[in-house]
Amino acid sequence: MASADKLINTDVPEKDVFAFHFLQSLSNLRKQNPFDTPDQKNYRVRKIKKAAYVSMARAAGGSSRLWSRALLRRADKDDNKIVRFSRRKRKVTWKISSKRRRSNQRAPVVEEAAERLRNLVPGGGGMETSKLMEETAHYIKCLSMQVKVMQCLVDGLSPK
Amino acid sequence: MENELFMNAGASSHPPVITSPSSSSAMLNWVSMETQSVDPSLGCNLFWEKSTEQSIFHSALSSLVSSPTPSNSNFSGGVVGGENVMIRELIGKRGNIVDIYGTPASNGNVSGSCYATPMSSPTPGRMMVMKTTTPITEISGDPGFAERAARFSCFGSRSFNGRTNSPFPMNNEQPVATNEKMPRISSSPALKPLVSRVPTGESSGEFSRKRKAKSKQNSPSTVSPSKEIEEKEDSDPKRCKKSEENGDKTKSIDPYKDYIHVRARRGQATDSHSLAERVRREKISERMKLLQDLVPGCNKVTGKALMLDEIINYVQSLQRQVEFLSMKLSSVNTRLDFNMDAILSKDIFPSSNNLMHHQQVLQLDSSAETLLGDHHNNNLQLNPDISSNNIINPLETSETRSFISHLPTFAHFTDSISQYSTFSEDDLTSIIHMGFAQNRLHELNHGSSKQVPSHMKAEL
After folding, report:
1. Model pTM?
2. For chain A, what are the domain ranges?
3. In this predicted structure, what is the pLDDT of residue B6?
């Protein structure tokens, strides 16, 4: 999927990479919880969902994208692991918040939609609108790829 | 006064305003500053300290004049872009300034002087105050140069009033008097590179201001200097931001990397704010087009707001799909667990080399098929590429029996579960290819699988 715009690069890897990462994360999950009871279904669902997102973030290029970085950081935080780059993140958000303060004059229509988008896209809170849209484009591509992979998996593994 | 100056430009006589000794030193100063790797983006400054050959300045200016073509077109348009070209040329020639000599000295100061006087700016000003008459006179040889010079808003005048860091306050007096009357002579590109180190970071903002001021040539000439100053003090947020973000490094940063050079369009507002806004809007619309191609069904929608709504809905739907699929996966997960182990362990069985050999594919297929249930029976028959008749045979037996019969074989490989990490990507990709192939088969059977997501959507 080569992006037509040379300045804005929104290439995502092939399906295989996504599938590989997702399967790996699933197998890790399986290793951790070998005997899942149906009572914990919600727990399992959440785990799988999280595994899907994390694997997607990794497949899409780890730290090279803002949203993937934010996603991984969020995942790490949820696991109560030490968040390594918290300080950097705080710095960035401070800068961006000052930018935003100055940019109150921007087109309000676009800005309110951008605000909603920021809530959806991970890491969106620290981005300006133009950067946000770049990240959204990449995020959409990765999400659709991940959905395809999961669909294939479900189709392949589900009984008729 | 200004008319005088301009006339003098052609006349190559000494303008009355010029005070030679300090100005020459000033002019030559920039050369020395230049060679000291000054950051030109920080603006023109007056260098009055050192004195070098006046001809240095002359040569630089004449080199500018000699290469009028890129600048000419720009000058007439009053655009910033040409300036950059000029400036880059000059910057490029920085190191060779001494070599450029050979230009006649002591003439044509006037054109320079007309810059000089307004440019007697204190350090924050990017204006090079060239108070020397002699060095600039030679430049006046080009009659068009004065005209061009006149066209550009004088960089010094407005911003100088507020800034009085100049070590040469006496220079300010006259320029202040004249600047108010001066039309907007933009910072001449000739002088732009003549910048020295700027002590304050705000000079970088000034630089951008000057560039934008250049485009105001058509605007009325009488502008209150204070107003100009305020304008310029509200420097281009984008550029200033960039320069400020670079913080302490403003002096050493290459300006052309940091700044986004904006060209003011004809007939459009040209203050820094609106230019920045325009650039930003263009950026956003460009990215909106990109997104429009991604999101299906957005071609009919026009307008940013609706487009963005559509995009938001699409992202939400994708996220919901992920959630739904993960739920589905968890429900299949008990089977999946065992299947995963078996499949992945089975992968180890073939050589870790490329598994695209037909035989290996068949092996994978057979293992997968037996594990994954009998619903592949029909599919396999439909897709002879992937499966051969051999594979169908085990499937013809009862599913459970084949399933169980394969268990011990795979149990043997479950020990290798720990070797998951050693999987080559090829192994798993083969599985996925299988899965995709099956998906295609499903598509054949059930129509487009893309309908499924829509079904899911409907359910949700």
Report:
1. 0.43
2. 15-30+37-83+115-157
3. 43
